[in-house]
Inverse folding.
């Protein structure tokens, strides 16, 4: 496994809708494993393929907090929200492509997601709490949507300018 570098907003690759994964192969499984390693290393609770520059419908997540128990890494190919609760909840969100910026986002409190797992089997599960927020945030990435797209234009511009500055500083080294 190896670490992949994470794209920083603004980047056109983060704004594109991703293509479905037709059939699993070793390359896609390796990508998923690399993404999990990259996510844990960051550290983060979720990562989507476009964030490492791959235009495919693939996300990884693990929202188990260290004190809560053993890790629960999930790899989801072609994840789809098939049901969402009317009840909504607000959580503070961040993103590995938008480092150190956080904002509250309102989303459905519970969602049911269908996906294909690492072995190619179809899975379905309902998520609540942090898991619900995270899985919706990651699926948004596959549609070119970032959490800052839910904020006011003013807040979004402010964060985007900070990220442009961060990228200039990193480029200079
Ligand atoms: Ni994100």
């Amino acid at each position: 496994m190896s670490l992949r570098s994470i794209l920083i907003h603004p980047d056109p690759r983060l704004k594109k809708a991703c293509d479905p994964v037709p059939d699993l192969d070793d390359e896609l499984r390796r990508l998923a494993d690399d993404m999990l390693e990259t996510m844990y290393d960051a550290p983060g609770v979720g990562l989507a393929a476009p964030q490492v520059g791959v235009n495919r419908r693939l996300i990884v997540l693990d929202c188990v907090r260290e004190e809560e128990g053993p890790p629960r890494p999930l790899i989801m190919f072609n994840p789809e929200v098939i049901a969402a609760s009317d009840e909504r909840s607000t959580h503070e969100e961040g993103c590995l492509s938008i480092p150190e910026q956080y904002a509250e986002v309102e989303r459905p409190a519970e969602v049911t997601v269908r996906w294909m797992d690492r072995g190619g089997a179809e899975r379905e599960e309902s998520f609540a709490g942090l898991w619900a927020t995270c899985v919706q945030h990651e699926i948004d990435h596959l549609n070119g949507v970032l959490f800052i797209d839910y904020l006011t234009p003013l807040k979004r511009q402010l964060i985007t300018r900070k990220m442009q500055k961060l990228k200039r500083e990193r480029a200079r080294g």
